[in-house]
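Hey,

The postdoc asked me to send both predictions to you directly instead of through the lab channel. I've kept everything plain text so nothing gets mangled by the mail client. Protein one:
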Amino acid sequence: MPFLSLIIDVLAFGGLYLTRQGSLPTVLGLGLQIIFTIILLIFVFGYRGRRKGRFNFDTWSHVFTLPFALIVISFIGNGLLAFLYYLNYAGINSLIMR
């Protein structure tokens, strides 16, 4: 799953690049980004590996393992990108397409 999340990140970057160049309509880019975000949400909840590392007594916290952290960071990044796509599509803020 971590490898698949990295592949989804590359595909999302490709979609953003094509949208910024004008080859891909914004609506299609928004749809793809929402699909990628939903897939990553399924990965976050469906991950069967070890999620947390050892307990750190200095900070009194657990730390995510690297594979699970890759999935979570990918999900957060793609979710933010989907939100920016929506803001651009609604005409509220065109920051992402400049």
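Protein two:
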Amino acid sequence: MNIRLRSAVAGDYDAVNAIIREGQDEHAEALPDRFARLDQVVAMGWYRSFSKQPNKEIIVAECGDKLVGVAMLEMKQSPSFEALVPRTYAYLNELAVASTHQRQGIGKKLYTASLAWARERGASSLELNVWEFNERAQQFYASVGMRTLHRMLFTDLT
């Protein structure tokens, strides 16, 4: 299988949205009090903002003429609190592979490309959030060397 990575273009919007929607549906099923089922998961304005700013990037994976994966990245600054060391880091908003192409190394290729993108921009780290129910994602990120930095806890008041 020949996988090609490239920067997304405006015409990729529908395919990118479809791939990310698969993950959104999994989240909505696992946590219906937190995630909605949507047709358009990625807002068009948000998608366009990634193509117009040098500190943002959408990397897509193609297999033949079909889009099968996506990574959405942006550079961020740590909050300016005296108690925190100032730093610039890359944030991985989305990393998703179409269900028809999972477990074929595409996610790892997208992750490796994300690391390279972050390093090229001087990021001190690559960070992301993963929901506790999402054991497959946690296993994937552990397999590429990511570690847990912190956990967010909650108490349900309803």
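Summary for protein two, as requested: The chain has a mean pLDDT of 94.

Thanks,
C.
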